Amino acid sequence: MTVDSNYVISATKGIKEVFKDGVQDSLLKYIDSGAFVVYDSVAKLDIFTTLESGSAVKELSDYETPPSFELGEGYKIQLTSKRYGNAIQISERTYKIDSKDSTTYVDEYIMEQSSQAIRDVENELVTGAHKFYNEAFDSTSAFLAPDAVEICGAHSYASGETFTNSSTAAFSVSALDAAMSVGAGMTDSSGKPRPVVYDTIVVRLGSDNARLARKLFAEGITPTAVGDINIYKGAMRIVETPYISYANRAYWFLRDSSFYNPLAIGIDVMPQMNEPIKESNESIRTNITGFWKQGVIDMPFSVWGSTGAV
Questions:
Q1: Which CATH architecture has domain 5-53+75-305?
Q2: For residue range 197-249, what is the model confidence (pLDDT) as tens digits?
Q3: Residue with the larger pLDDT of the pair 255 and 66
Q4: Average pLDDT in the 258-285 region?
Q5: Which of 58, 86, 97, 300 stands 20 to 30 A from 103 (CA)?
Q6: Are strands 37-40 and 263-273 parallel, antiparallel or unpaired?
Q7: Distance (Å, rounded) from C-alpha 254 to C-alpha 228?
């Protein structure tokens, strides 16, 4: 028994919600890692302004009017949505003659194509998200901090105050101590103390850094598996991810999760299957499209990173 194109179109429509939910679930798994933040975007262009502190407090005489405090505005960041997509296509041969039991075969074929498409979209999203880390020391990266400096580097607030959140030290107890000391001495844009207490470390899955991090913070603790990522919640939260490339396996990063994560992805339209189209060659094509944006939406004072080169 063969089936016609109408059956294929109907069967493809039947998995549209399954596909959308699958992509969303796949992405949401990685949000829990804390490596980056995902937010719902409602505009083609998202505009953020880094807020910098001011200083107005002074000693007053009995009848003196207190000065007004004004929150200083820093840099403006604009994130523009980009369109991404792929497609699944079923040939006339597939749905007419490739199986004696065509309905079962076509259903399974569509589900397999859909599953692979979900994985492809997930990979694009998550690989792109981890460019924050793979390109953290690259001054030519598409994802620079608001002051146009690489994510981990020597930064300047709009007010002129500076901070450095990078190193070249290989991961070790002494290097960690040095980084924690830097965080403890962090100040805000007006020079007031704003200590950063790192509670999360991000390393490449299976690297020497990952093994040392487990020995230091999570010996004997069973990780929570989140997609391809292992998360250990010991003395420090350890995020092991394969999306930090093998070439960058010596990189290691720290975050203070009490501050909003500046590494952000805005989802305008979750990737979804569109209406199936019957092509002139009798194949059935279903385009998969989505819109999202990505960037550094605040000064990365809560992020610290090292190339591990020394």
A1: Alpha-Beta Complex (3.90)
A2: 999 999 999 999 999 999 999 877 888 877 778 887 888 999 999 999 999 99
A3: 255
A4: 91
A5: 86
A6: parallel
A7: 20
Please report, for the chain, the start and end positions of each structural domain, with discontinuous segments joined by +: 5-53+75-305
Contacts of 6 (CB under 8 A, 6+ apart): none
Q: Given this model, what pLDDT does residue 114 score? A: 83
In angstroms, the CA 90 to CA 92 distance is 7
Q: 102-129 and 16-31 helices cross at what angle (nearest 10)?
A: 30
Q: What pLDDT digit, counting tens, does each position of 155-177 carry?
A: 999 988 999 999 999 999 999 99
Residue located via tokens 């093998």: 246
* Amino acid type, 264: A
DSSP class per residue in the chain: ----HHHHHHHHHTTHHHHHHHHHHHHHHHHTT-SSEEEE--SSEEEEEEEE---------TTPPPPPP-PEEEEEEEEE-EEEEEEEEE-HHHHHTS-SSHHHHHHHHHHHHHHHHHHHHHHHHHHHHTHHHHTTT-TT-SS--TTSS-SSSEEE-TTS-EEE-EE-PPSSHHHHHHHHHHHHT-B-TTS-B------EEEEETTSHHHHHHHHHH-TTPPPEEETTEEEEESSSEEEEETTS-GGGTT-EEEE-TTSPPSEEEEEEEEEEE---EE-TTS-EEEEEEEEEEEEE-S--TTEEEE----
Tokens of 103: 């309905």
CA–CA dist 120, 226 (Å, integer)? 17
